[in-house]
Amino acid sequence: MKTIWIITKRELNSFFDSLIAYIMIILFLGFSGFFTWISGSDIFMVGQASLRSFFSIAYWTLFFFIPALTMRLIAEEKKSGTIEMLLTKAVTDKQVILGKYLATLILIIIALCFTLPYVITISRIGNLDAGETICGYLALILMSAAYTSIGLFSSSITNNQIVAFLSALFIGLFFHIIFEVIAGGMKGLLGQVINSLSVPVHFESLTRGVVDSKDLIYFGSIIFMGLFLAEVSLSKRNAYNQ
Q: Which pLDDT belongs to residue 99?
């Protein structure tokens, strides 16, 4: 665990040293703040003390921001050759993957923490549902954790950051939109199964203030598969280099 934490701190420092963290946080707050407080679908137009408008825009903003954060994690190190230097030390593939994964997830959680003034402000305007709000943030974190694992896998299969970004977006589109669209044109058990693979189904369930084990298992499964495939991809590269 100590090794994983060292890698995590190294990646977090690189995010802030390269200004990526600051740019991501500022853009995220800019987009979310505009659509939460100013646009035509903002809180004042809705007329309810609810953060649903924020959760809806963050749902899309993070979908695009996460591939941009993860595209460099392994691809850049492959291209520069530093991944070989890192893995020649007493560090396993799993530790590298987990360290980079946690660093990205922590950065996203930091960005979400900067939106807590939204919660304080709305709770003073009206009767904010605490359970719904907590579950909404949980939904954003779980969704981010799932897409971060996908982005990490995409970064592990190439040394080109643009390819990694586009690959993560392409894979993510299936979970974000395509499965739901396909299920909409199907009936019966197959349609239900495909629909259950869609992120919006589980995300919306959580944002309604309901924590269902099915939603937790769903996001946990994506996280596990993404990290597992990233580790397999990295280990295959190491085997070829030996």
A: 93
Confidence band for 240, pLDDT divided at 50, 70 and 90: very low
Q: How far apart are CA 35 and CA 41, in angstroms?
A: 7
pTM metric for this prediction:
0.89
The separation between the first and the last C-alpha atoms of the chain, rounded to the nearest angstrom, is: 26
Minimum mean pLDDT range among 87-96, 150-159, 191-200, 206-215: 87-96
Domain boundaries, the chain: 2-241
